[in-house]
Specification:
This protein is mainly alpha-helical and 229 residues long. It has helices at residues 3-13, 28-33, 40-70, 75-88, 92-112, 116-126, 134-144, 149-171, 176-185, 187-197, 210-220.
């Protein structure tokens, strides 16, 4: 990649990016409330499950499709990936969180860049043709920035894990060193998730993490919540 594309990737992977991911825990809050995770080891196993069973088989597949179609300006292909990702995401909270983060990233990129594809995609989202999921917006954004698709997928995994580690530090007794250790230990799992998503078509997207979906549904009805999802 060019230096410019590399710096763009650094910016998109930074927790400083104002897309609101600090407000979501993707079910992690309910896992802690139900005493299903207590320490860094439990957290590492859970995040590994997220990567293998949800992020890889769904978000990364949609990201790859959006990345490929954005390079050719195929808005129909981008919107198809977007709709399919929402269709296989069972939790209403997860869908809403992904769309809110996607909306913020799309708005930010439109402010920073004068790209016809971004404008036309935003029009389709506003018209209800596509939900505007974060992974899809990220796929479009990275393609237009010249960030190759594999690095875009790794970027997505890294951002997902660091976001949940930030949530875990507010929910558990997790120090910064332990958080970095978990992040380091999960690098092979991120690579595995990216590799597994490489040969998966949109119609083969099949996330499967039943307990995550069940606890996400419980979280929707919880009387007291720290996180939006």
């Amino acid at each position: 990649m060019s230096d410019d594309a590399t710096l763009s990737a650094f910016r998109l992977a930074d927790s400083f990016l104002p897309v609101g991911t600090y407000t979501v825990s993707y079910g992690l809050e309910q896992f802690t409330q139900d005493d299903r995770i207590d320490d860094a080891d439990d957290l590492r196993e859970l995040l590994g499950t997220y990567l293998r069973r949800q992020v890889g088989p769904a978000e990364l597949v949609a990201l790859r499709a959006a990345h490929a179609t954005a390079t050719t300006g195929d808005l129909d292909g981008i919107c198809e990936a977007d709709r399919r990702l929402s269709a296989v995401t069972l939790s209403a909270e997860f869908r809403e969180s992904a769309q809110q983060s996607g909306d913020r990233l799309l708005s930010l990129q439109r402010e920073l860049q004068d790209e016809d594809t971004l404008e036309r995609y935003a029009e389709r989202v506003a018209a209800g043709d596509a939900p505007g999921n974060y992974a899809v917006v990220l796929g479009v954004t990275t393609a237009l920035a010249g960030i190759e698709v594999r690095r875009a997928c790794l970027l997505c995994c890294h951002g997902f894990v660091t976001g949940l580690l930030g949530a875990a530090q507010r929910l558990l007794s997790l120090g910064h060193t332990d958080a970095q250790r978990v992040l380091d230990d999960l690098r092979p799992v991120m690579v595995e998730a990216v590799d597994d998503s490489d040969d998966t078509d949109l119609d083969e997207m099949a996330p499967f993490a039943p307990l995550v979906d069940v606890l996400a549904a419980e979280h929707e009805r919880a009387e007291r919540r720290l996180f939006a999802s």
